[in-house]
Specification:
About 85% of the residues lie in helices and about 0% in strands. The chain is mainly alpha-helical. The protein has one domain. The radius of gyration is 14 Å and the shape is elongated.
């Protein structure tokens, strides 16, 4: 991706999730929306990377699978908050709330 290592992008994403979760815990509503969007983008990226490992490379990386597990856990923690998902960003999470 334009010479930027995927691990660097992942590190920035995890730092952003930590930052947004901290601000959301302090009561900032906009941070909750950014947290939901960031976790959703991480979820989509994880699905893509799992597809690449399974069907294109036919090999799995232990660290990648650990990161995928953490991302699935984060998605499971953020997704049940329907107020964040459906009210603030309905064009992204409208289908996601119906699954929950």
């Amino acid at each position: 991706m334009a010479g930027i290592p995927v691990a660097a992008i992942g590190t920035v994403a995890y730092f952003a999730v930590f930052t947004f979760a901290t601000f959301a815990a302090l009561g900032y509503q906009r941070a909750r929306m950014f947290l939901a969007v960031t976790v959703f983008m991480m979820f989509l990226s994880t699905l893509w990377f799992l597809y690449v490992q399974a069907f294109l490379l036919h090999a799995f990386c232990r660290f990648c699978l650990f990161s995928a597990a953490i991302t699935f856990l984060l998605t499971g923690l953020v997704a049940p908050h329907r107020s964040v998902l459906s009210l603030q960003v309905p064009w992204i999470f409208g289908w996601f709330c119906r699954i929950c």
